[in-house]
Every structure is written in C-alpha cells, then in structure tokens.
Design goal:
84 residues, two-stranded parallel ribbon, 2 strands, 63% helix, single chain, mainly alpha
C-alpha cells in the first residue's frame, strides 16, 4: 500500500510484515486478537505519531520498488521491440 488516506495503523497477519515495516505495524496471527489491537490503537491519543513513523518507513523504503519495477518493465518492452 503506497498511499494512506486515513489516519489508521496498518494491521497484518503475515509475520514478514514486521520486518518489512521495522515493527511499526500491528501484527497478530489470530484475527480476533489483531482486531482487538486495532481497536485499542484507535483509542490512543498519540496514535498519529505512530502512523507518521509508519508512513515515513513506507516513503523512505518501499515506494522505490514500484519505480524500479516500472523501469524494468520499460526495458523488457524495449528489448522485445528491438528483438522483433
């Protein structure tokens, strides 16, 4: 997810998400527990601080992946054109 329109915390059931986002996400394998964590998080008065940290991680570490993928796609298409 590149854009975060609402002030919410990202919630995941996939363990690798903790590594991808430096532990700045809500995680639990149990869906009911994950939802409880999300509800408790929404009640925090300083939740925006945590969301901002998450958004900075996405901005600094993950949005470039889409750009690289687009560049590689372009080179693949160009190679196909030249090879034909």
């Amino acid at each position: 997810m590149k854009h975060i329109g609402l002030i919410i915390m990202m919630m995941f059931q996939i363990l690798i998400s903790l590594d991808l986002f430096d532990g700045k996400v809500l995680y639990d394998e149990n869906l009911k527990e994950l939802v409880k964590k999300g509800i408790l998080f929404e009640r925090l008065e300083d939740k925006n601080k945590y969301v901002k940290e998450f958004m900075e991680i996405v901005r600094d570490n993950h949005t470039y992946l889409n750009r690289i993928e687009s560049i590689l796609w372009f080179f693949d298409k160009r190679y196909e054109e030249l090879s034909s």
